[in-house]
Amino acid sequence: MKLQFTVQKQLDKFSLDMDFMVEGNRIGIFGPSGCGKTTLVGLIAGLQCPDQGRILLNGKCLFHSKEKVNIPAQHRRISMVFQHPHLFPHLSVRGNLLYGYKRCAPNQRQITLNNLVDVLQIGHLLDRGVNNLSGGEKQRVAIGRAVLANPQLLIMDEPLSALDEGLKFQIIPFLKKSCETFAIPYLFISHSLTEMRIMTEQVMNTVNGRITGILTAEELARNLMGKSPTPYLNLLRLKSSHRIDGMNAYRFGSSELLISDPGSTQEESLYELSSTDIILFKRHPEAISARNLLQCRVSEMFSAGGRIGIELTCGSEKLVAIIVQEAVRDLDIKIGAEVFAAIKATAFRKLS
């Protein structure tokens, strides 16, 4: 997907003025509330009209003020998933899913209902009324309706913000699997850095109606270190665990991570680990209460507010710890140095 966007739009006292080109299939639009994220995607989708400028998607002109081009929203082949499902209450789940599909040209119907219900695991819901669905089921149906319209671009505008934490991380795998299975490029809008890091590859950072940069989700996370009361969070996708003394044990590089988790083992789990919960040692400690002690190499160092971010290479895996300047001097930490990283089994937070 290639998007070229040069647009100005005035809304009361808010001014949007953006000029960018972005290319990729998993693009994020990040920024605080009121920075222009929803206005931006509304202009791309044709829900709002720019004052001036042009919008090109995959080389096709959707809007051009000088050439008087403005393709109607229903002909842009752009689907949207919103914060709330906005399902049609008079239609069944099947009717909602097929709403966009029936309005799609027959030669563009590459995704079918049968394909979709398997991916979203909603086959048992097809004949239900939408008022008899849970919040998570409603959002899966909303995702399905958007995907089944066979769009050239899917826009997701804060699709997880109305869900509680547990439900949010249940929905994310369905979002990712749907887009990956059917090769649908998407724009993912959020003010959550964690969602950006899970869902996107490139991120357009948005401030006061302007794009201040296009960077990777990891670069964004590191840029924000020290600028937020929330520390940098390592996201660990761990596979093939087994139980040891009531804890889950996961292979991590050439070592094993022990994690306190009362749940049963899973094929794959996503955990969050704060950079402040990693304690570094210059030499192997004789004894320590933390259940995880990893031998690592310092591969990168960077400023993080008044502290220093330390990227650790642990076999084939990486972690980021954050320490104060004085600790860097005391431990003689420099790129290439060998250190030991201690992590409590209780320090990990399971996301999915």
Q: Provide the spatial order of strands within the biggest beta sheet.
A: 7-8-9-3-10-11
Distance between the termini: 29 Å
Structural class: alpha+beta
Number of helices: 8
Q: How would you state the average pLDDT, rounded?
A: 93
Please tell me how large the radius of gyration is.
Answer: 23 Å
- Outline the biggest β-sheet: 6 strands, mixed
Total strands: the figure is 22
Beta-strand percentage range: 35-45%
Helix amount: 10-25%
Low-confidence stretches: none
Along the chain, the helix and strand elements come as EEEHEEEEHHHEHEHEEHEEEEEEEEEHEE
Q: Which shape, going by the Cα principal axes?
A: globular
What's the layout of helices and strands?
Elements: E1 2-11, E2 14-23, E3 26-30, H1 37-45, E4 52-57, E5 60-64, E6 69-70, E7 78-81, H2 93-102, H3 113-120, H4 135-148, E8 153-157, H5 165-181, E9 186-190, H6 193-199, E10 202-207, E11 210-216, H7 217-223, E12 233-239, E13 242-244, E14 247-252, E15 255-260, E16 268-274, E17 279-281, E18 292-304, E19 307-314, E20 317-324, H8 325-331, E21 338-343, E22 348-350
Parallel strand pairs: 3-9, 3-10, 7-8, 8-9
Antiparallel strand pairs: 1-2, 1-4, 4-5, 5-6, 10-11, 12-16, 13-14, 14-15, 16-22, 17-21, 18-19, 18-21, 19-20
Feature tags:
six-stranded mixed sheet, five-stranded antiparallel sheet, 352 residues, alpha+beta, 22 strands
Summarize the structure.
By secondary structure, this protein is of the alpha+beta class. The protein has eight helices and 22 strands.
Protein described:
It is a single chain. Helix 2 (93-102) runs parallel beside helix 4 (135-148), helix 3 (113-120) runs antiparallel to helix 4 and helix 4 packs parallel to helix 5. The protein contains eight helices and 22 strands. The protein has 352 residues and is an alpha+beta fold. The chain has helices at residues 37-45, 93-102, 113-120, 135-148, 165-181, 193-199, 217-223, 325-331; strands at residues 2-11, 14-23, 26-30, 52-57, 60-64, 69-70, 78-81, 153-157, 186-190, 202-207, 210-216, 233-239, 242-244, 247-252, 255-260, 268-274, 279-281, 292-304, 307-314, 317-324, 338-343, 348-350.
